[in-house]
Known about the structure:
Blueprint: H1 14-33, E1 37-38, E2 44-46, H2 48-54, E3 64-66, E4 72-75, H3 80-91, E5 98-107, E6 119-128, H4 133-149, E7 155-160, H5 161-168, H6 176-184, H7 188-197, H8 205-210, H9 214-231, H10 269-282, E8 287-288, E9 299-307, E10 316-324, E11 335-342, H11 343-349, E12 360-364, H12 369-382, E13 387-389, H13 396-405, E14 410-414, H14 416-421, E15 424-428, E16 434-437, H15 439-446
Parallel strand pairs: 1-5, 7-8, 12-13, 12-14
Antiparallel strand pairs: 2-4, 3-4, 5-6, 6-11, 7-9, 9-10, 10-11, 14-15, 15-16
Amino acid sequence: MTIQRPRGTRDFLPEDSFxxxxxxxxxxxLLERWGYQEISTPTFEHLELxxxxxxxxxxxxxxxxxxxxxxxxxxxxxxxxxxxxxxVNELQTAAKPLRLHYFGNCFRYERPQKGRFREFWQxxxxxxxxxxxxxxxxxxxxxxKLIESAGVSGDLHLxxxxxxxxxxxxxxxxxxxxxxxxxxKKERTLLAEKLQEIGADHLGLIELIDLKGRQALDRAMEMxxxxxxxxxxxxxxxxxxGTSEAVSPDVTGDRSARSDRAAPSDLDLAHFSELVGLLEIxxxxxxxxxxIVRGLEYYTGTVFEIYASGLGAQNQICGGxxxxxxGLLGGQExxxxxxxxxxxxxxxxxxxxxxxxxxVAVVFVPxxxxxxxxxxxxxxxxIAAPVVLDVMGRGLGAQxxxxxxxxxxxxxxxxxxxxxxxxFTLRDMSTGSQESLTLKEIRERLGE
Length: 448
């Protein structure tokens, strides 16, 4: 019986792994140039880390289990909570801001479909410790540049939750899940009917989410004063209590997860407007879009999503924003801005021209095996291309045939005569031409 891989997982063959490695290296180099340091966290954590952040219902969506000690554990479904757990455990006293980046596999028990797997990879970054628009602009610009570094064109949409959150305070809590669902699913007719039914059609919600770009920002600035006045006498409220099931999860991670805390109620559009201006200086094009409602219970202000063509309905490749999570995990509350990139979705649309370096084959007869091993060792220390050596006991002709089948660029042929003369035969596998050179000369030639 042949054992198959588990449903919702994938095998990455050499060509796939090379391609993924190239893209990840490009992104990692960019992150380090921006001053972000790499961290990593365990593949499994205490289940409580995710239930305290997302509620007990999250156990239906993840791989949760008891270990041999009877402890409740879970394979990580996302990376933000583990990173913030690490921050609370290890880094609270570190100088601020902290710039961190990470890459890892995550697990969710859901129905596999195009663009969704039970094991998937997430690349992300967090800037911890600043509440200024400067920090938000840096993180958002970084996310966009990372997408571009992979050769992918992304459409950045930028929202601010203060507006929607303020409007939600004026809607009965029992009606909020339906309203949020209609916004998220872009069901305008049902949304209009619901707002009219509950007497909230005067808020201008549909008008606001229909507008995009500069028009949306200008209209929001006009509405802000009236919204602040209408909401100032309302009692403190779990602003979005009960809306988690109505809001779709962010496909790049669990950044839409619920936090059992009241969300900030300030409506600081001046902050948001300043952020938009800073992004223009960064040369980042962003569409202001107040329809972004994913993560309303998790984020505290700015949110953003990046979409790419060529992925069908599952076209979100990045999501992020500003949040406060450390306090929920036992630390001092700290403002953070971060994002998660769906690495697998990026790889579906990357067009990569780069190819692995063709190998160099060391071909020899059995009598000079020791000299061939020494030659391969010296070549591996001196040239960038991979060097392969026969380990199958093949004859000279079979080794040359194998060198051709693996796409070797050159073959270094070693026999008793070559060893005696101190010069080996270097054959160009594409032309068949060959010349007699010392090993030093071969290194110099192949190192050009």
